[in-house]
Amino acid sequence: MPTVSDVLAALDALWPPELAESWDAVGLVCGDPAAEVSRVLFAVDPVPEVADEAVRLGADLLVTHHPLYLRGTTTVAPLGPAGFKGRVVHELIRNDVALLVAHTNADRADPGVSDALAAAVDLRVTGPLVPDPSDPAGRRGLGRVCELDAPLTLAEFAARAAHGLPATAAGLRVAGDPDAEVRTVAVCGGSGDSLFDEVRAAGVDVFLTADLRHHPASEARLAGRPALVDAAHWATEWPWCEQAAGQLDEISDRHGWALRTHVSRTVTDPWTGHAPSTSPAGEPAAPAAAATPSSRSTSSGAPR
Ligand SMILES: [Zn+2]
């Protein structure tokens, strides 16, 4: 049976820690490197429900995409607003579960987080959106530029993305002409709005990512291209968990490790509800108690 350190060495080869951004916090967070591993759980977020799931499963190793402590800490006490992080540390250590983080190193790897996102939406990757200059093969880097096998309208492409990604309460937001033709797509798992310059330079029809903010999205719309499909951050990164579990399965088979791998289906997207707008487009709804025909009027002066 492999040890935590054996599995770590194999996963470090898939997602070399030196590929991580300088501000990132990747690698082993807790766990005895000499402990044996038979069961591994992959998840996006190291939150308490995922730690509970790892314990319930009897996992010896939890691999998450997001760091537990990104900015450093002087305590792992389960107290205060960030006390859930300390609770996760205590629960994992108490139950002999190691925690490994593969974040921006998994983003930049080949295959990486955005390859998994592209595959989930049935796109053919042609190359990285921001190539890693240290990769002679030109396959590593941030985001991916992709092609569709056959053109779709923007509405059809958005429906395909909604079908291919795991469901979340908020679903997907779309910006653009629903009938516009889509042949090329840039994808970036997680927050992608820092990559608009590269997306524009790639000349793609659509940018599929998460966490797009008003101003960058508005500027992209005013420029006319690309159309935007904005999914939940968690949903764009979750396909990586399945890709990663498949990669570890192959390694396990090669070494005769007989590891059992699992992918968490717990939706850890923080947005838990969605209220569709019900007032007429462009108008705020009248407060129910004050809405008398004689006392309220629209901005044009017409009685409501
Ligand atoms: Zn992320």
Automatic annotation (TrEMBL):
<feature type="region of interest" description="Disordered">
    <location>
        <begin position="268"/>
        <end position="304"/>
    </location>
</feature>
<keyword id="KW-0479">Metal-binding</keyword>
<feature type="binding site">
    <location>
        <position position="107"/>
    </location>
    <ligand>
        <name>a divalent metal cation</name>
    </ligand>
</feature>
<feature type="compositionally biased region" description="Low complexity">
    <location>
        <begin position="275"/>
        <end position="304"/>
    </location>
</feature>
<comment type="similarity">
    <text>Belongs to the GTP cyclohydrolase I type 2/NIF3 family.</text>
</comment>
<dbReference type="InterPro" id="IPR002678">
    <property type="entry name" value="DUF34/NIF3"/>
</dbReference>
<comment type="subunit">
    <text>Homohexamer.</text>
</comment>
<protein>
    <recommendedName>
        <fullName>GTP cyclohydrolase 1 type 2 homolog</fullName>
    </recommendedName>
</protein>
<dbReference type="InterPro" id="IPR036069">
    <property type="entry name" value="DUF34/NIF3_sf"/>
</dbReference>
<dbReference type="GO" id="GO:0046872">
    <property type="term" value="F:metal ion binding"/>
</dbReference>
<feature type="binding site">
    <location>
        <position position="237"/>
    </location>
    <ligand>
        <name>a divalent metal cation</name>
    </ligand>
</feature>
<feature type="binding site">
    <location>
        <position position="66"/>
    </location>
    <ligand>
        <name>a divalent metal cation</name>
    </ligand>
</feature>
<feature type="binding site">
    <location>
        <position position="233"/>
    </location>
    <ligand>
        <name>a divalent metal cation</name>
    </ligand>
</feature>
<dbReference type="Pfam" id="PF01784">
    <property type="entry name" value="DUF34_NIF3"/>
</dbReference>
<feature type="binding site">
    <location>
        <position position="65"/>
    </location>
    <ligand>
        <name>a divalent metal cation</name>
    </ligand>
</feature>
<dbReference type="GO" id="GO:0005737">
    <property type="term" value="C:cytoplasm"/>
</dbReference>
